[in-house]
Amino acid sequence: MISRRKEAEIVQTSKSTLVTVGNALRLLKLFSHETAEIGVNEMSRALMLAKSTVSRMVSTLVQESILERNPENGKYRLNPLLLEIGLIAQERFGRESATNPPEEGRHERGSP
Question: Recorded GO terms, molecular function (predicted)?
């Protein structure tokens, strides 16, 4: 088992970083098309964090409607609230990219 101090050293990249927030974001990044549901033990191993730490983070994320527990297998999955947040980001990105197209790849081949 990793000590609490070592746990903090693993994820802390700068003094201005909030370790808990960083860990929660790393936890969310574990989810993918291939891994739609994950158990606390799997999260703990993947993040190299104590199971109790991961369990508290998961409980908070469930309470805030970011994750939800599948009652059939006890694993956790992303809550549809994240889709709503993603759609807001996508809408904003779509507006910004329409008004400020990226410089790279802007010209078609053969165009000045």
Answer: DNA binding; DNA-binding transcription factor activity
Copy the structure tokens of residue 5: 């101090």
Write out pLDDT tens, residues 82-100.
999 989 988 888 777 666 6
105 within a domain of the structure (yes/no): no
List residues bridging with 76 in a β-sheet. Answer: 38, 69
Q: Residue 46 belongs to what domain range?
A: 4-99
Q: Which residues contact 43 (CB under 8 A, 6 or more apart)?
A: 27, 30, 49, 54, 58, 76
Side chain identity, residue 46: A
Q: How many CA atoms, within 13 angstroms, populate the side-chain half-sphere of residue 74? A: 5
Under 8 Å between Cβ of 43 and 75: no
Cβ 62 vs Cβ 27: under 8 Å = no
For the chain, the distance separating the N- and C-terminal CA atoms, rounded to the nearest angstrom, is 60
Where are the alpha helices (H) located in 1-112, listed in sequence order?
Answer: 4-11, 19-28, 40-47, 51-63, 81-99
